Amino acid sequence: MDTDALIREYGGRVYNLAYRITGNRQDAEDVAQQTFLQVHRSLHRFRGDSSVYTWIYRIALNAGLRARGRLDNRFFESLDEAVHAYADDLPDDVDRWRRDPESRYIYDELLAEIQRACVHFVTRRLTDEQRAVYVLRAMLGFPLDDISQILDVSKNTVKARLHRAKASLKSYFSGRCQWAAESGDCTCESKLGFAIAAAPEILQKLRNHPPDSKLKEVMRTTLRDVADEDDVRRFFPDEPMEAEALQRLLSE
């Protein structure tokens, strides 16, 4: 068992886990690198008390939580004022995408990116224990038995933490997001100015690499017969992660 083989086997999945925790590519890359550096340095001490898979995921999970720690709930309670302050701060190109039918798909993609980022962001109101379980189960679809092994706790403990995590998120989103009430119009547009100011890298990514409307339609058609699109997506990295990049890092 060597580090290069472990990177080839687990590099993409570790990166995907890191991306789900941190919500952005740069932090996910840093977490993946930290994970395999620690694996490289500790491999000779690995005694096999748990599976390699469990050991690596535990290292990655802890590194991800350290990279994006918990935010005080008082911070979240003050967000409404910040959202209102940025309500009219919409960049010209974003406003143009919104108004132009031919460019509307870029605007819709921006809203979708903001919605995904929001889920990452709001999980930071959870405790580390709750967040770890929520990411592994709700966002990545890990079996309860695997989560129990990764976290080294009982399956009942996993269930209890997941229940508390979902209750906390539901409490926060109620009255703030239409998803919680499962009714009403989307309110993300009213928060767009604040979201762009808080996470400008999302807009910059779309400016640099605008989505292809024809390609998105092909994907929708291809996945139309799939029972649950999320089941397909959750096991693929949200961004590419090349094993060679980690191998180069370890050889430096």
What do you see in this structure?
The chain is an all-alpha fold and 252 residues long. 70% of the residues lie in helices and 0% in strands. It has helices spanning 3-22, 25-42, 52-67, 73-77, 79-85, 92-99, 104-122, 128-139, 144-151, 155-173, 178-181, 192-198, 200-208, 213-222, 229-233, 243-251. Helix 2 packs across helix 3 (52-67). The radius of gyration is 20 Å and the shape is globular. The protein starts with a helix and ends with a helix.
Sequence of secondary-structure elements: HHHHHHHHHHHHHHHH
Q: How far is the first residue's CA from the last residue's CA?
A: 20 Å
Radius of gyration: 20 Å
Oligomeric form of this entry? Answer: single chain
Low-confidence stretches: 232-243, 245-252
Coarse morphology: globular
Instruction: Please describe the biggest sheet, giving its number of strands, its sense, and whether it closes into a barrel.
Output: none
Structural class: mainly alpha
Count of individual helical segments: 16
Instruction: Estimate what percentage of residues fall within beta strands.
Output: under 5%
How many runs of DSSP E, i.e. beta strands?
Answer: 0
Mean pLDDT: 76
Provide the helix percentage.
55-70%
